TrEMBL record:
Position of the signal peptide: none
GO biological process, one term: fatty acid elongation
Originating organism: Actinomadura viridis
PROSITE patterns: ADH_SHORT
Name by which UniProt lists this protein: 3-oxoacyl-[acyl-carrier protein] reductase
Known EC number: 1.1.1.100
């Protein structure tokens, strides 16, 4: 993990967010929207350093502080190092967005133990241990504080185009959301999830074009969602406008699941 590299100036008292997996897709859109709203953003990437730098540059253009770290959520050492760095440089967090995730499109008979572990370790175990570290930083901040977990429609209804391990990991994310919502409510820390349906990002770029078109046709609104449409839901849940909302799941799925 490389260290956080602060850039840009900010007034004292600015809200501070950590957004994982912001080298592209939903995480990048979320970081940019938070920055547009004046929030300092610390972003992470796993392999795409250039993408993360691009995201940070577009955030910094809004005049907020930005920092970039490499983070592999499968590594608890990486997670602890990141938390220590945020503690040393920023001292507090108001917002944690557990966005990073992985979704190999593997048919269930071909999923082996290593791939099962990699998906669960990234999407569920990593999110748990990062949340555990981040709670101390959220406790250090004042005012509205929020964790937003990016789950998935697959975690609610099982995999559609996606894989069994992925769906299981996202169901775990939804269960953790509800657990932490109850555990942290008395301290005023809110914990919510968004559950996107199929969104046009590098992740769905991994589907073959026929499968992607079939998926879009199955969506009642007739298309894949856009990263910015998920980012708006994340930013609402992360903002004081949602001050009475905790333990909730905000569906962003074009009508694929209602009610
Ligand atoms: N796209 C969809 O249709 C959809 C639907 C429902 C839910 N989601 C969820 O939305 C979130 C964002 O996905 P996306 O669609 O924006 O996909 P994406 O563009 O592929 O972004 C995934 C991000 O996660 C990072 N990442 C991957 N493995 C990691 C690891 N082991 N440790 C730390 N970070 C890791 C990636 O880093 P690098 O790029 O640097 O490697 C990237 O920044 C994910 O949790 C995904 O499950 C997506």
């Amino acid at each position: 993990m490389s260290g956080g590299t602060a850039s840009g100036g900010t007034a004292n008292g600015t809200r501070k967010a950590l957004v994982t997996g912001a080298s592209g897709g939903i995480g990048a859109a979320t970081a940019r929207l938070l920055a547009r709203r004046g929030v300092d953003v610390w972003i992470t990437y796993a392999g795409d350093q250039e993408g993360a730098r691009r995201t940070a540059a577009s955030c910094a253009a809004h005049g907020v502080r930005t920092a970039v770290s490499r983070l592999d959520l499968r590594s608890t050492e990486d997670i602890a190092r990141l938390a220590a760095r945020v503690r040393a440089e920023w001292g507090e967090l108001h917002i944690l967005v557990n966005n990073a995730g992985t979704c190999p499109y593997t048919a269930w008979p071909d999923i082996g133990p290593d791939e099962w572990d990699a998906v669960m370790d990234t999407n569920a175990r990593g999110a748990f241990f990062l949340t555990k570290e981040a709670i101390a930083l959220l406790r250090a901040a004042r005012g509205d504080r929020a964790i937003v977990n990016v789950a998935s429609l697959a975690g609610q209804v099982g995999g559609i185009s996606t894989s069994v391990h992925y769906a299981a990991s996202k169901a775990a994310v939804l269960a953790m959301t509800r657990s932490f919502a109850r555990l942290l409510a008395a301290e005023g820390i809110r914990v919510n999830a968004v559950a996107p349906g199929p969104i046009r990002t590098p992740m769905t770029g991994g589907l073959d074009p026929g499968a992607r078109d079939g998926l879009a046709a199955a969506v009642p609104l007739g298309r894949l969602g856009l990263p910015g449409e998920v980012a708006h839901a994340v930013c609402l849940l992360a903002s004081p406008d949602a001050a009475f909302t905790t333990g909730a799941t905000y569906d962003v799925n074009g009508g694929l699941r209602t009610g």
